[in-house]
Automatic annotation (TrEMBL):
One of its GO terms (biological process) is methylation. Gene3D superfamilies: Vaccinia Virus protein VP39. This is SAM-dependent methyltransferase. It comes from the Bacteria. It comes from Amnibacterium flavum. Residues 61-155 form the Methyltransferase type domain. GO terms for molecular function: methyltransferase activity.
Amino acid sequence: MQEYLDTNRANWDDRASMHAARNGTGYLVQRYIDDPDLLSDVVRFDLPRLGDIQGLRTAHLQCHIGTDTLSLARLGARVTGLDFSSVAVAEARALVAETGDDVVFVESDVYSADEVLVGGSFDLVYTGIGALCWLPSVTRWAGVVAKLLAPGGRLHIREGHPLLFTLDERLDDDLHPRFPYFEQAEPLVWDQDSSYVETDRPLTATKTYEWNHGIGEVVTALLDAGLVLTTLVEHDSVPWEALPGQMVERSGGEWALGARAGVAPLTYTIQAVKPLV
């Protein structure tokens, strides 16, 4: 398991340095410096379900370079971002130093989050899209979320739909399920030199290990951790071109199926609350 973690960390170290570029590639981070009111497309999509988060003590797990994290802060939350990549954390700190947003960033594997953050102290645990596929056990993740939340606190996660992750993106003539829907002990192994956004060079740390987690597995893990499910919504769009050649771009950085519109969910949102007693 340590090999999987180390390999994925090297990949995300490499991505972080490119995603944080100030040259108009990657996450286009210069926009957040130039416009102090700008919110990321990901957080803007989440707003109708997030609601008012003014003053909420918030932990953003797997925060990467911090564009969603600072967006939560701009909505009034008191945010701590956590990521296992030292490069991502350094880039996130450098970004908020330029933007002036009040965010704390901590370097840690998500499974150790309750050891480096104060357990039971967060009103909101936020996990952005594209996070769970890097974790071998969704049950362990749910346990960490439950430990971090204060009584009455809630989890908010929007994630790529496990059905989407079964599809082979290399085949563009139709939807081709090829990969496991359910969590497997052994990960899928990928080796590719491109990222999901435009970058100014290829990746050098190209190998990754990923796991899928079925909707039922995610929901059950949260229930078993003692949380109460309050929201489960499936969406017909995803914030990257997940299936090249088969998607149409919408406003707000979202992509939906073209010819196969409505055939499959592409993302989902879950919210769950930790009971008061």
